[in-house]
Amino acid sequence: MRIGINLIPLRPGRMGGAEVYFRDLxxxxxxxxxxxxxxxxxxxxxxxxxxxxxxxxxxxVRENAGTGRIxxxxxxxxxxxxxxLGRVRQKYxxxxxxxxxxxxHHERLDLWFCPFTKLDPLVRDCPGVFLRGMPxxxxxxxxxxxxxxxxxx
Length: 153
What we know:
By secondary structure, this protein is of the alpha/beta class. The chain has helices at about 15-30, 65-75, 80-105, and strands at about 1-5, 35-40, 55-60, 110-115, 130, 135-140, 145.
C-alpha cells in the first residue's frame, strides 16, 4: 500500500508530545514493513525526517517563498486591507489544496494520512485519515496503553 503523510504542519521542537507520538508511530510502521510511505514536507521539517527505501520525502512547501508569511506581516502593517488579504489567503489555500490533490493523484497513493490537523485536502482520489484529538501514551507497570484523546475525564 502507498501511504502519503501530510507533514506540512509539523514544526520540529515546537509540538511537544504530538511530534514524539508521530515519530514513534512512523518508526513502528517502518519497522513492521509492508508499505511504502511518501512524506510530504515543508522546508522547516524536511531535513528532520528519515529517507529510507520504504520512506520517500517530497518537499512541498517552502515557507520563505509562500504568501502566508507575507500576509501575516502585511496584516500587522496594513489593517485596512485585511479583508482583501483574507481573500488572497483563501486563494493561496485553494491553490495549495489543488496542488496536493494533483500530487496525490500523480503518486497514485492508496491512503492519505494527516496526523496533525484536519484532513487537507478534503477532496482526493483516495481515502483519507486524520487524528481527532491527540492520542496519549500512558505507561503503567511496564505496559503501554494508547488512548484516543477523546475520553471524558
